[in-house]
Amino acid sequence: GCSDSVTKKVTVYPNPVAAISGIPTSSCSPTLLTASSVNSISGYPAGKNQTLNFQWSIREGSTILTTGTQNSISYLATNTTNSNRIFWIRLQVTNVSGCSDVDSVQVTIWPKPNAGIQRIVNDCGPATITALDSSQAFGSTLTSRLWSISPGTPPQTNWTSLSGTISTTTTLPAPAVDSQSYTIRLIITDS
User: Fold this and answer.
1) Are 93 and 50 in contact (CB under 8 A)?
2) How far is the C-alpha of 105 from the C-alpha of 164, rounded, in Å?
3) Residue 63, exposed/middle/buried by CB under 10 A (0-12, 13-18, 19+)?
4) For the whole prediction, is pTM greater than 0.85?
5) What is the dihedral of CA 67, 69, 74, 80, to 10 degrees?
6) Comparing C-alpha atoms, which of 69, 79, 123, 93 is closest to residue 20?
7) Under a CB-based contact definition with an 8 Å cutoff, are residues 138 and 81 in contact?
């Protein structure tokens, strides 16, 4: 019988490996998301051009918020809603041979709790002042409250701690000559 054969050369190129680093999986609003590429181009010969092209995107749902072509990307993620916001950071790395790899990271941005104080009334001294916490936590629970007071107006450095959870009561002395202003501070933390 008759026969024939043919030989063709096939080149198989190594794939780059895309890897995103420097991103938390969750954080409080506002958070500057700064992602870096930790990629690998192993398998390339020493003299071969090992240039990589980067395609970044940060999106929420189907909305692309920003893109980039450097080896890192940054975006200020905020959340002024009453629920968590989910952001996706995606990196596609492509080498000079056209081979590519993709990595993506999901980041949850929690809404910042809203500290509030109500029921503070000016009074003659000595004055007993009661401050009531009107703070809000969105999608979480308030886990701590730290009350403090300082003479004067912000910014102060001489804060005095006060006891209290939902409210705090303190007695302020009568000033000798002129009126005295105090600043009451409430720092809250949520879960």
Assistant:
1) no
2) 41
3) exposed
4) no
5) 0
6) 93
7) yes
Task: Round to whole Å and give the CA distance between 108 and 87.
Answer: 6
DSSP 86-110: EEEEEEEEEETTS-EEEEEEEEEEE
pLDDT-derived band at 54, boundaries 50, 70, 90: very high
Q: What order do you get walking across the sheet with 52-60 strand by strand?
A: 26-28, 100-110, 85-95, 52-60, 63-68
What are 33-51's pLDDT values in tens digits? 999 988 666 555 555 656 7
Structural tokens at position 134: 């009107």
Centre a 10 Å sphere on the Cβ of residue 91 and count the other Cβ atoms it contains. 25
